[in-house]
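Chapter summary example: a protein plus magnesium ion.
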Amino acid sequence: MPETTARPTPGTAASTADPEPTRSLRLGVAGPVGTGKSSLIALLCRELDERLRIGVITNDIYTDEDARFLRSAGVLDPERIRAVETGACPHTAIRDDVTANLLAVEDLEADFAPLDLVLVESGGDNLTATFSPALVDAQIFVLDVAGGGDVARKGGPGIGRADLLVLNKTDLAPYVGVDVEQMVADANTARDGRDVVALSRHDRSSIEALVAWLDGVLAGFRAGGHEPVDPGPMAPHFHADEDGNVVEHSHADGADDHDHAH
Ligand SMILES: Nc1nc2c(ncn2[C@@H]2O[C@H](COP(=O)(O)OP(=O)(O)O)[C@@H](O)[C@H]2O)c(=O)[nH]1
Ligand SMILES: [Mg+2]
């Protein structure tokens, strides 16, 4: 009799009574440019690739730079990393019109079925960009301690209400005069006790805390007990329109308060 060596389908390992998830856990990673989103995704792939089947979607304005960075990092089969080019406003592609991202996630899930986890990196153009719960089941918001100790306290929907806030690059704190403990305390206050991880790729225990958080979310998702939370729309913000004029607008759900095209 041929032996079966296939890995267990997610949710079936513990007991056949477990509900079978119909798809992967979709996890968004948002935050401003340079805070370390791509690096965090590479880190998670490196830590989890042995035991989870992972796919990655990146969002860039006009390029596939993040996807190329992740492919070259060699942490995952390059075919499992796909880029969505978002055009002018990357925050729109993860919040207001998620069609391109949803199609990319579904294609990846279909091509590599079954996947356990799909990581979606936001374009990272804006401090207050958030993912729609129509696209992801859970989301991480990434801040860089070198961006200043005040950022966590000043808040925003992602900082306040993402499933996890990562205060990244804590190894840089002594060089930029940031008190990480104070920043974590401020973040805890701003987040009403929602999860916060102070992370550095040079600090093993912080990496373990991040992986433990993800394992907890995945376990809840597989058991059918995970509820996607909507952090809320992004705050009003400024950016240039097609003619180079500065426009202020919000992405309050359903609001169409600006006449420039996205
Ligand atoms: N010192 C330090 N640098 C980091 C860490 N994580 C990421 N970086 C660096 O931060 C820069 C921006 O990272 P990247 O992942 O491209 O940011 P993204 O724009 O948010 O995707 C890169 O030079 C990374 O090497 C960290 O834990 N410590
Ligand atoms: Mg990136």
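Key point: Residues 25-226 form a domain with the Rossmann fold fold (CATH 3.40.50.300).
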